UniProtKB/TrEMBL annotation:
<dbReference type="GO" id="GO:0008270">
    <property type="term" value="F:zinc ion binding"/>
</dbReference>
<dbReference type="InterPro" id="IPR010964">
    <property type="entry name" value="M20A_pepV-rel"/>
</dbReference>
<dbReference type="InterPro" id="IPR002933">
    <property type="entry name" value="Peptidase_M20"/>
</dbReference>
<dbReference type="InterPro" id="IPR036264">
    <property type="entry name" value="Bact_exopeptidase_dim_dom"/>
</dbReference>
<dbReference type="Pfam" id="PF07687">
    <property type="entry name" value="M20_dimer"/>
</dbReference>
<keyword id="KW-0378">Hydrolase</keyword>
<protein>
    <submittedName>
        <fullName>Dipeptidase PepV</fullName>
    </submittedName>
</protein>
<keyword id="KW-0482">Metalloprotease</keyword>
<keyword id="KW-0862">Zinc</keyword>
<dbReference type="InterPro" id="IPR050072">
    <property type="entry name" value="Peptidase_M20A"/>
</dbReference>
<comment type="similarity">
    <text>Belongs to the peptidase M20A family.</text>
</comment>
<feature type="domain" description="Peptidase M20 dimerisation">
    <location>
        <begin position="250"/>
        <end position="362"/>
    </location>
</feature>
<dbReference type="InterPro" id="IPR011650">
    <property type="entry name" value="Peptidase_M20_dimer"/>
</dbReference>
<keyword id="KW-0224">Dipeptidase</keyword>
<dbReference type="GO" id="GO:0008237">
    <property type="term" value="F:metallopeptidase activity"/>
</dbReference>
<dbReference type="GO" id="GO:0006526">
    <property type="term" value="P:L-arginine biosynthetic process"/>
</dbReference>
<dbReference type="InterPro" id="IPR001261">
    <property type="entry name" value="ArgE/DapE_CS"/>
</dbReference>
Length: 457
């Protein structure tokens, strides 16, 4: 089969289908009828109706998920994607749910994460079906509905449906992600010491998502000092952006950072830690100043050294740490942080060290979410098959990779992330003006079609 030529023949149909899907603003909403809101329900129904019209077997699993499949046999090869998206946010060049094509790129919320890649996988299945291919295993495209929140949809789905023997998710990058680090979201809450000095920190606020490096943090300060002068000197010294103003007898200081995904915190600029560094330089009460210093030292480094959990392995690299949120008033301080730990790490040992750290300063430690690491060996036949197809299509000699992100591969007993971004693809997921290159999606169709062919013939 000439997958290269065939995939190009489906570009028009791919665009027509995906543009209709992208018009649906499938952001989570509270709803008394639909598990994740009417828009997500509509996206699921739209995708299933496309599959049904094309002659596939489809199933809606109580609104929590669904699948599109063809082929025979007891074994299932799964492809897991999701139809929910994060809120669009402001600042888009064109409306986020009015799909736009500019300069060979497809713009819309969900174009990259994950509706565009899901549709590429679907078109790959349709290509095989229309070429008369009869897979000896079931090929099942599983449609998730709650990936951007807490995965309740996919959990519900697998309580009702058979787990594939192997599977991949088109929700990351090529060539093959054979291991994903463990992911831990936690909170530590402290009771603050008394601050009786002339300079007082009244409150601090910053960040609202633990999986993103915060790009803004603010503090409200009472002080006889000229905080305008002190803060602007600090910004200049550390080459930071920020603002300071006086309101209601207090100073409001605000630091701007650079937001990036928490899987690579070293590539961003954490506004909260930058603000804590400034606060510790103020003439605060001794005990209070020591507390601020301890918070800063705990999260100054993104490798976990300040938390006493620094480590790495050869498979997946170094542990990463991101201070994602802070909510502090005159009495308490709540810190939220995200860790991505190596696949060989001992989670229970990490958990204990974090409990010890909290207890050292009389704080309480709470785990909000934990996803264990996953790892298929590089020489696993599933990994080598996918990698071989990728290299055959691209002419590369790429090797399997690892990452700190979390994908639906973790929902499988044996799974990997496989595309749909290439090394030079723009990574715009969760950002304004999210987009994909159309040529990347057509190449992904080729790779997925050939991979599913190789896995099920």
């Amino acid at each position: 089969m000439d997958f290269h030529t065939l995939s190009k023949n489906y570009e028009k149909e791919y665009l027509e289908n995906v543009m209709e899907l992208l018009k649906i603003p499938s952001v989570y909403e509270e709803d008394p009828v639909y598990p994740y809101g009417k828009p997500i329900h509509d996206a699921l129904e739209k995708m299933l109706s496309i599959g049904e019209e094309d002659g596939f077997i489809t199933k809606n699993v109580d609104g929590h998920g669904g699948h599109i499949e063809f082929g025979d046999g007891d074994e299932i090869i799964g492809v897991l994607g999701h139809l929910d998206v994060v809120p669009a946010g402001a600042g888009w060049t064109t409306p986020p749910f009015e799909t736009t094509i500019r300069d060979g790129k497809l713009y819309a919320r969900g174009a990259q994460d994950d509706k565009g890649p899901v549709m590429a996988a679907y078109i790959a299945m349709k290509l095989l079906k229309e070429q008369g291919f009869e897979p000896k295993k079931k090929i099942r495209l599983i449609l998730g509905t709650d990936e951007e929140r807490d995965w309740k949809g996919i959990d519900y789905y697998f309580k009702k449906e058979t787990m594939p023997s192997l599977g991949f998710t088109p929700d990351a990058s090529f060539p093959v992600i054979h291991a994903e680090k463990g992911l831990l979201d936690s909170y530590i809450t402290y009771t603050l010491p008394e601050n009786e000095g002339e300079t007082k920190v009244i409150s601090v606020q910053g960040g609202d998502r633990l999986n993103m490096v915060p790009d803004e943090a603010a503090a409200w300060i009472e002080s006889p000092l000229n905080i305008y002068e002190v803060f602007n000197e600090y910004l200049a010294q550390h080459k930071l952006e920020g603002t300071v103003k006086s309101t209601g007898g207090q100073y409001e200081v605000k630091v701007k950072g650079i937001a990036v995904h928490a899987s690579k915190p070293e590539e961003g600029q954490n506004a909260i830690t930058a603000l804590l560094r400034f606060l510790q330089s103020l003439p605060l009460n001794d005990e209070y100043e020591l507390f601020i210093q301890n918070m800063y030292k705990a999260f100054e480094s993104t490798d976990g050294e300040g938390l006493n959990v620094k480590q790495m392995d050869e498979v997946s690299g170094s542990l990463t740490s991101n201070l994602g949120s802070i909510a502090m008033d005159e009495h308490t301080c709540k810190l939220g942080f995200n860790l991505r730990y190596p696949v060989s790490a001992d989670y229970l040992a990490i958990d204990q060290k974090l409990k010890d750290l909290a207890a050292k300063n009389e704080g309480t430690y709470e785990v909000f979410d934990h996803l264990a690491s996953i790892h298929l060996e590089k020489d696993h036949p599933f990994v080598t098959t996918l990698l071989s197809v990728y290299n055959n299509v691209t002419g590369e000699e790429a090797k399997a990779k690892t990452m700190g992100g979390a994908t639906y591969a973790r929902a499988l007993d044996a799974g990997v992330a496989f595309g749909a971004l290439f090394d030079d693809s723009p990574d715009t997921a969760h950002q304004r003006d999210e987009h994909v290159r159309i040529s990347d999606m057509i190449k992904a169709i080729e790779i997925y079609a050939e991979s599913l062919y190789a896995l099920t013939r």
